[in-house]
Design goal:
Blueprint: H1 3-11, H2 18-30, H3 35-48, H4 52-63, E1 79-83, H5 91-100, E2 106-110, H6 120-125, H7 136-146, E3 148-152, H8 159-169, H9 177-190, E4 195-202, H10 211-227, E5 231-238, E6 246-248, H11 249-260, H12 266-282, H13 289-301, H14 304-315, E7 334-339, E8 344-349, H15 351-363, E9 377-380, E10 387-388, E11 393-399, H16 405-413, E12 415-418, E13 428-432
Parallel strand pairs: 1-4, 2-3, 4-5
Antiparallel strand pairs: 5-13, 6-9, 7-11, 8-10, 8-12, 9-11
Helix pairs in contact: 1-3, 2-4, 2-8, 4-9, 4-10, 5-11, 5-12, 5-14, 9-10, 12-13, 15-16
InterPro entries: Glycosyl_Trfase_fam3, Glycosyl_Trfase_fam3_N_dom, Glycosyl_Trfase_fam3_N_dom_sf, Nuc_phospho_transferase, PYNP-like_C_sf, PYNP_C, Pyrmidine_PPas_bac/euk, Pyrmidine_PPase_CS
Protein name: Pyrimidine-nucleoside phosphorylase
GO biological process, one term: pyrimidine nucleobase metabolic process
Length: 433
């Protein structure tokens, strides 16, 4: 078997066998197939695509390239969720205690942020004392006893995907649906979950800019889950503006606490309850989505959800007092108000630009080795549809950096103000099962 023949085969639009896909992935992982040939193969996939079976086989090849997490010692149906990435996306912080409060085990592995999208691990580590490095026994015991635990991703989980993703990034093949879908699903399959809820973001702050592309990605990932015997649901949600009002690590923890106290913004509360309700259905707690949604809403308003968050923080070594005293979280030295330059209605808030602003303030990383400032971030004061008068504050920048002039310009430019009030935006577009 030769890689050049397989590149030619895919270039002509023909279907690859499982053995051929395994040969390609294994060869690139062990170094016998060079970068330039895999680049040619990815470009052939970009233009010719893959069928359902090819994508499932590619996903499984990624899974088998490294470690697989064994969650068989955990009782019940293990349900995981994944977000395709966004700005101000603190949904994991909300749904972990929320779903666990129903008795459904949530054994979660999460990553760190890079670029303008934040990472759940970074957010949780802004809580004093919170540990995301747990040994296997502690992780499993916490899930069995408390129904929840979170750890950082294993270094050797899907190494083939890590290696190929870096190459796709520099060969203009990142936005290939088969390659995106197999990349995302391989990590979820390797993480050991029985069922998966996917939060597929679409809009200016998401990887998928159009609803059609988001639907195609969602359907492809659900098909992969089905092919590999994982119950999978994809929810397509709006990322045309940051989710909620806070972007940044400690700031997003504060906002997640507000949601679990019943004081959260409408958009993030709706998305969180939608994701959690689908997790509850897949976990077997309820057969009906609406019943699950209503029950979870009640759990928020009767105080059980916030109590479960306190427990979550405590069992992972964090200071649970932060739930009742937000001042115990890191705070920035400078808080810079950005003002509207005219009167009207907010017609758009460019989520990707806000993400870049937060990164420049210290909340994110430009490279994997960068240190982040847990206190840095952006408060979105005015969102799409809000009325503003000239000189009203539209957002607040939080930072420990003294010179932020260029960042302030970018922050102001992220907000568009029009004379007419825009239509109310949808928070959840569609659910694909």
């Amino acid at each position: 078997m030769r890689i050049v023949d397989l590149i030619e085969k895919k270039k002509l639009g023909n279907v690859l066998t499982k053995e051929e896909i395994d040969f390609i992935v294994n060869g690139y992982t062990n170094g016998t197939i060079p970068d330039y040939q895999i680049s040619a193969f990815f470009m052939a996939v970009y233009f010719k695509g893959m069928n359902k079976q090819e994508i499932a086989d590619l996903t499984l090849a990624y899974v088998n390239s490294g470690d697989k997490v064994d969650l068989s010692k955990i009782d019940g149906i293990k349900v995981d969720k994944h977000s395709s990435g966004g700005v101000g996306d603190k949904i994991s912080l909300i749904v972990i205690p929320l779903v666990a409060s129903l008795g459904i085990p949530v054994a979660k592995m999460s990553g760190r942020g890079l670029g303008h999208t934040g990472g759940t691990i970074d957010k949780l580590e802004s809580i004093p004392g919170f540990r995301t490095e747990l040994d296997e026994d502690t992780f499993i015991n916490n899930v069995n006893k408390y129904k929840m635990a979170i750890v950082g991703q294993s270094a050797n989980l899907t190494p083939a995907d890590k290696k190929t993703y870096a190459l796709r990034d520099v060969t203009a093949t990142v936005d290939s649906i088969p390659l995106i879908a197999s990349s995302i699903m391989s990590k979820k399959i390797a993480s050991g979950a029985d069922a998966i809820v996917l939060d597929v973001k679409v809009g200016s702050g998401a990887f998928m800019k159009s609803l059609d592309m988001a639907k195609e990605l969602a359907k492809t990932m659900v098909d992969i889950g089905k092919s590999l015997n994982r119950n999978t649901i994809a929810v397509i949600t709006n990322m045309d503006q940051p989710l909620g009002h806070e972007v940044g690590n400690a700031s997003e923890v504060k906002e997640a606490i507000k949601v679990l106290k019943g004081q959260g913004a409408e958009d993030e509360t709706t998305v969180a309850l939608t994701i959690a309700a689908n997790m509850a259905v897949l976990g077997g707690a309820y057969k009906d989505f609406t019943e699950a949604y209503n029950k979870l809403e009640n759990i928020i308003y009767n105080g059980k959800a916030i109590d479960k968050l306190k427990e979550f923080i405590k069992i992972q070594g964090g200071d649970e007092r932060i739930v009742d005293n937000l001042d115990l979280l890191p705070t920035a030295k400078f808080n810079i108000e950005i003002k509207a330059d005219k009167t009207g209605f907010i017609s758009s808030v460019k989520a990707d630009d806000i993400g870049i602003v937060a990164m420049q303030l210290g909340a994110g990383r430009k490279t994997k080795t960068d240190k982040i400032d847990f206190a840095a971030g952006v408060t979105i004061v005015k969102k799409i549809g809000d009325k503003v008068n000239k000189n009203d504050t539209i957002c607040i920048l939080h930072t420990n950096i003294e010179d932020t002039q260029n960042t302030e310009i970018l922050a102001k430019a992220a907000f568009d103000i029009s004379e007419n009030k825009p239509e109310k935006i949808k928070y959840v577009y569609e659910t694909i099962e």
